[in-house]
Amino acid sequence: MASLFSWIFSSPKSCPSEEDQRCLLYNQIVQEGGQHHIAARLAELITNSGNAWPPKATHVESWPSALKPYNVVYQRIAPFLPVRESSLDDADNRRLINKTRALIAALLEEEIQIPDICETLEECSRYDSELMPMSAWLGFYSCLASLRHAYRWGVLPVVREAQNEKYLQFPRELDIPWPYIQRRVGITSPGGSLSSNSYYNLDGRREIVYSITSGMGEDHNRTELWNGLLFVEVEDKALPMYRHIAKASQFLENEDYSSTISTLRTANEELKVAFKHFYDNMNDYNLVPSLWLPYCQGFQGWTLEGIDGVSGGQNILIRTLDSFLGIRPWPTEEVEALHLPLAQRNWLNSLRTFDIRALAQKKGNEEVIQELEHMVTQLRLWRMGHMRRMQRYQVHRPERNKMTAGKSLVEEDSVQVSDDSAMVNHLKQMLSVRLKETK
Ligand code: HEM
C-alpha cells in the first residue's frame, strides 16, 4: 500500500507517458476512497488487483525462488496439451489423459521442493511480509490454476472420458499451495476462475502467459488471446464508469440531484464506449468460431464434485451493472465466493446494498430515474447482442459431452445432444429471468 501511494503521489513524469491518464485515474480513485463507502470499495478493488484495474498480475520474475519451478513445469507441459485431431475412442483418450497426467506429476516431483514451498508460502502469507506483492500472488494463482486445469483435462480439446470423471486426486505439489492462494485472494473453488485464467493470465504486454494452444498456429493463438483480452479490454474502458457510478451514489445520498444526473449521464456515455469495444472486437477474425469452443472454452470447465468452472458471467463489468441497477437474482455469497476474489465481491456487494434504483424511486427525481433506466436499456441490448453473437461459437464436437462455458453442466445422456442446443437453452433460461428483471 505504501508503495502505491509513493508511486501515485510522485511527479506525473514518473508514469510512462501512455500511462499518464491511467495513473491519474487510479490516483483519483484511491484518493476518493476516503469520501464514501462505495468509493472505498472501488479503491480497494484497485489496491487488491496489483494497484491497477483491469488487474495487473506479475509472473515468475516477481515470485520468491521456491515458487519459480511451477512456471517451468507449466511451460514444459503446455506443448503436450492440444492435439489437432481428437480421437473418438475412449480407450485411446484414457491413455492420452493418463500420459499427460503422469508427465505433469513427474515434472512436479522433479522440480518442486515441498518443504521449501511450505516455508515460503507461510512466510509470504504473514500479514507484514513484503516477500510477495499482491500482483505476484495473482500471477501465481494464474499459474497454479492453469496447472490444475491442465491436469484435470489432460488433453485439448477436452474429451468425454475426462468429463465423465466425478472426482480426481491431484498431485500434492498442486494441492499444497492452493489453500494459501484461496486465502490470500479470497476464493473457494478448487479450480480456476475468469480472474485466474483471463485477467491474471496476461503479461505487461498483454500477451498470454500460460497458453493452451502451443504449436497450434496463428488462428488458434489469436482466438486464445482474444478469449482473455476482450474481457480485459472492456474493463479498461469500464473503469471510468465505475468511478462515476460510485460518485453518483454519493451525490444521490446527499440529494445533490443535478450532480447525480450529470454524473449518471457521463457514466452512460462511458458504458457505451465499453460496449462498443465489445461489439467491435467480438468478431470471427479475433475469435474464430470453429476454434473457440474446442480450444478455449473446454479447458475452462471443471465439473469435478459438481463445481462449476470459468464463465464469462464471472466478468466484473456485467456483474457491476447487475449489482448497481438491482438486476436480480444475484448469486448467493457462497456461489460467488467460489470464483470472485474478495475485493471484487466487496465492490459488488456495496452496490447491491446501496440499491440505487430503489433509492431513486424513493427520492422521486424523474431525471435520475430516467438516467438509470437508460443504463438498464443499454444492458438489456448488450445481453441480446451478446447472445446473438455467442450463438456462432456453439459448434458441435463429437469427442465431448455437452458442456456450457460457465456452468460446466455435463449430462450423462447427452452424447446425442449437441453443445449448441445445450448452451443456447441454458443461456436462454438464465436470460429470461434477467431480461424480465430489466424490463
Ligand atoms: C470472448 C468472446 C466471448 C464468447 C465466445 C462468449 C460466449 C459466451 C457463452 C457461450 C456464454 C454462455 C455460457 C454459459 O452458458 O454458461 C456466455 C455467457 C456470458 N458472457 Fe460471454 N462470451 C465472450 C465474451 C464476453 C465478454 C467480453 C463479456 C463481458 C463483457 C461476456 C459476458 C458474459 C456474461 C455476463 C455471460 C452470462 C450470461 C449473462 O449474464 O448475460 N462475454 N458467453
UniProtKB/TrEMBL annotation:
Keywords linked to the UniProt accession: Heme, Iron, Metal-binding
Positions that bind heme b: 386
Coiled-coil residue spans: none
Gene3D superfamilies according to UniProt: 1.20.58.480
Acetylation keyword on record: no
GO MF annotations, alphabetized: heme binding; indoleamine 2,3-dioxygenase activity; metal ion binding
GO biological process: 'de novo' NAD+ biosynthetic process from L-tryptophan; L-tryptophan catabolic process to kynurenine
Keyword match Kinase: no
CC annotations in GO: cytoplasm
Similarity comment: Belongs to the indoleamine 2,3-dioxygenase family.
This protein's name: Indoleamine 2,3-dioxygenase
Species assigned in the record: Lentinula detonsa
Organism placement in taxonomy: Eukaryota, Fungi, Dikarya, Basidiomycota, Agaricomycotina
